[in-house]
Structure formats: C-alpha cells, structure tokens
Amino acid sequence: YSDELVIDDEQNRSDDQTRSDAHCALSSNEKSRSGAHCAPLPIKLGKAEILQEGKDLSIIAFGKTVKTAIDVAKFLNEKNISCEIINTRFLKPLDQDTILTSIRKTKRFITIEDNVIQGGLASQIKDLVIHENHISGSYFAYPDEFIRHGSCEELEALYGMDAKSISEYVLSEQ
After folding, report:
1. pLDDT of 93-136, one tens digit each?
2. 34: DSSP letter
3. What is the 3-state secondary structure (H, E, C) of 94-148?
C-alpha cells in the first residue's frame, strides 16, 4: 500500500494540460463541438477536488452523486445561491482540510451520497464538524433500512436524493 501510486504533479503540467482540465468540465456535446478530448489526469490518494468555487453553500459528494451535486449547484446558482462543489473522490482517507476550509467559508453544507446515511460520507462529515460553531448542514442519503427495488431515478426521487428534491429542500431552508 502506498499513497504515492498516483501523484498529481501540478508544477510540471503544461499549459495544454491546464486548458484540457478546464475543457473536461464541458458537457459531452460541448466537447464534441470543440473537437477536443480529455486526457485522464493523475489523482492523489485522499485529495478532494473543488469542482466549483462558491460562497453560500458547500455541496460535498463523491462517485455518481457528483453529477447530482453539479445539477443542484446549477439550479441554485440561478436562484443566486453560490455553491462550492467538492468531489471528495475518497471516503478513506477523507480530505478533511479541503472540506473544512470550504464549510468554514460557506457556513452551510449538504452531503449527497449513494449510500445509507450511517457509516458513509454523512457520518464522516458529522464527526468532522461536531466542534464547529455556526455551521448548518443537511445530509442526503438512503435511510438505514431496507431499500425497496426500483430504478435509480425512482429511488432517488422516492428518498429525496434527486437534484430537484435537494434543490427544493435547500431553497426551503433559506
């Protein structure tokens, strides 16, 4: 085991790689129109990625829920809520510094995960912010109970984990 299996050496990136990084945030339709492609970049073990800077709300997600986080941020940005999106990439080790810096800046956060609420991202963030003052947070995950069968879309809507439900919840808490 080594945390140096993949190291992101930002100092040695060329300008072309930096432009490619920004381009990779484009939708697939935008990419195809531009004719560019995205080369995978190294990921450092335990290092989160800030996908979008914001000042009002930190949205913390990983895996497939990062797409939901982006959709929530787009909707909330249209309502003048500036969202910071963090892709944790890893649960263990969790990049506590990046997450805490963001939460301290925005004073408000949500987590989104495709997991039960106990023992996952929500639990780790609860432990991380337990001694923080004047911070509010909400957690979007499946309850710790039997989850009925259905498509991902059906279950996410049923349990309030789709972008529409999360966005409406955040707006109701304003």
Report:
1. 999 999 999 999 999 999 999 999 999 999 999 999 999 999 99
2. H
3. CCHHHHHHHHHHHCEEEEEEEEECCCCHHHHHHHHHCCCCCCEEEEEEECCCCCC
